[in-house]
Specification:
Radius of gyration: 16 Å
Strand content: 15-25%
CATH architecture of one domain: 3-Layer(aba) Sandwich
Shape: globular
Strand order of the largest sheet: 3-2-1-4-5-6-7
C-alpha cells in the first residue's frame, strides 16, 4: 500500500477523474483507492472500472445523515479527497475528518462565478453573458462553503468574442486536465 491513498468524488462523465487516474497510475507515493459517486449512470463509474479502481455509489440522504461514507473512506485507508465534478456540498463531518485534505477544481476564476448552482455549463454561460475577457480554472481547498477555500492555483484563458459556452468549456476543460493532476500530486505529497 502506498503512503497516500486518495478518493475521487465525482458526479458526471469523469473526464477529470480519468486524467487523474491516468496521471497517478504509476506514481511512487500516491494511488487512487476509491471513486465515490452519487449518480447511478455516471460515466465516472466505468472509467474507475477501466483503471481497476473500486467505486461506491452513495445516495444524497445517507451522505448527509450517516457516517457510512466516512467509515468507507477510513476502511480503504484514504488520506485525501479529490473533488472532480462532484455536485454535492461536502458535509461538515467529512470536512472535519479531512481538514485541509480535500481539494476541488472549479471552472472559473473564483470568486467570480462560484457558489451554489454554479457548475459546468452554467458557469460558462454566465461568463459569456457577462462579457468577460478571461476565464479559466481555480483549484482550491474545500471548506464548509461552496467554492470558498484557500486557492492553490488559478489558470487563465482568453474569452474570445466568438466563444460559445461550449467552446469556452472545452478550453477550460483542457486546462483542467493539464493542471489538476499535477497540482493534486504536489499537494498530496507536501509535508
Amino acid at each position: 500500500m502506498k503512503p497516500f491513498r486518495i478518493a475521487i468524488f465525482a458526479s458526471g462523465s469523469g473526464s477529470n477523474a480519468e486524467a487523474i487516474m491516468h496521471y497517478l497510475a504509476n506514481h511512487a507515493a500516491i494511488e487512487v483507492a476509491l471513486v465515490v459517486c452519487n449518480k447511478e449512470n455516471a460515466g465516472v463509474l466505468e472509467k474507475a472500472n477501466q483503471f481497476g479502481v473500486k467505486s461506491i455509489l452513495i445516495n444524497k440522504e445517507e451522505f448527509y445523515t450517516s457516517r457510512t461514507v466516512l467509515q468507507t473512506l477510513q476502511s480503504h485507508g484514504v488520506s485525501h479527497i479529490v473533488l472532480a465534478g462532484f455536485l454535492l456540498l461536502v458535509p461538515d463531518y467529512l470536512i472535519k475528518a479531512y481538514s485541509e485534505k480535500i481539494i476541488n477544481i472549479h471552472p472559473s476564476l473564483l470568486p467570480k462565478f462560484g457558489g451554489k448552482g454554479m457548475y459546468g455549463m452554467h458557469v460558462h454561460k454566465a461568463v459569456i453573458a457577462s462579457a468577460e475577457k478571461e476565464s479559466g480554472l481555480t483549484i482550491h481547498l474545500v471548506n464548509e462553503h461552496f467554492d470558498d477555500g484557500e486557492i492553490l492555483l488559478q489558470v487563465k484563458c482568453e474569452v474570445d468574442k466568438t466563444d460559445t459556452p461550449e467552446t469556452l468549456g472545452g478550453k477550460v476543460l483542457q486546462l483542467e486536465h493539464e493542471h489538476y493532476p499535477r497540482v493534486i500530486a504536489k499537494w498530496v505529497t507536501r509535508v
